[in-house]
Amino acid sequence: MIETLNCEDAEVVLVVLGSAAGLVRGVVSSLRAQGARVGMLRIRYLRPMPGDVIAQALRGVKVVGMLEKDISFGAEGTVYTNVNSALMRANMLVPTYNFIGGLGGDDITSAQVEGIYAALQAVACGKGASACPRVSFLGIDMPANSGCSGIGESAGRVQVSESARGASDCGESPAKRASAREASLEPQDEVPRALAASTEPPFDRTEVQ
Predict the structure, then answer these.
(1) Model confidence over 69-115: pLDDT tens digits?
(2) For residue range 42-61, what is the model confidence (pLDDT) as tens digits?
(3) How far is CA 35 from CA 53, 144, 153, 166, in A?
(4) What single DSSP character describes residue 203?
(5) CA–CA distance, 18 with 43 (Å, rounded to integer)
């Protein structure tokens, strides 16, 4: 029901579906060759929503992004809502960011996808959360177009910052990363206090038509 690419050791994973998966797959391969620990999760079947499978595949990931070509008016992407619900049911308190593009037939470019990954890596390293909105629109207000902490632009193409390369790994040793991932795979008995005390409005449960 899902397809994963390099999610096993990824710090950040971009969740996609549909035709955008081919573009993202190519960007992941390119960034991996540069040492960036990034991955992709493609949702192959939206209904029934494979929430448990998605949550299991994302355990241990520092930051999750969702790239989609739809929106629930006044809120966020419909698939983003469903992915967040799946993570909440699994008691996974992981930062998530929604990137919406392709509306009205607009193209999504590899430079924008590279910018998404660079922005997510900056958040994973604690350097870009304040500059990255929870919901962004490609070509309008997203970090790949306007710049984000730790991201530079040259000749109109987003460059992957040092914080997004696997060589730095946010200053963590391989042993520390392995220990943190093992801990994240242990069963969790209760919803984290920060999640229970959240003042965020409830997720829009609008179904995909």
Answers:
(1) 988 877 799 899 999 999 999 999 999 999 998 888 888 999 999 99
(2) 999 888 888 899 999 999 99
(3) 27, 20, 19, 4
(4) P
(5) 8
Query: Is-contact 128 150, C-beta < 8 A?
Result: yes
How far apart are alpha carbons 168 and 114 in whole angstroms?
A: 18
Phi-psi region of 144 (alpha: psi -120 to 50; beta: other; left: phi over 0): alpha
User: Which contacts (CB < 8 Å, 24+ apart) does range 54-57 have?
Assistant: 54/2, 54/15, 54/83, 54/86, 54/87, 55/86, 55/87, 55/89, 55/90, 55/92, 56/90, 57/2, 57/4, 57/7, 57/13
Q: What CATH number is given for 2-184 in this structure? A: 3.40.50.920
pTM of the full structure: 0.70
Contacts of 77 (CB under 8 A, 6+ apart): 66, 68, 70, 71, 98, 100, 135
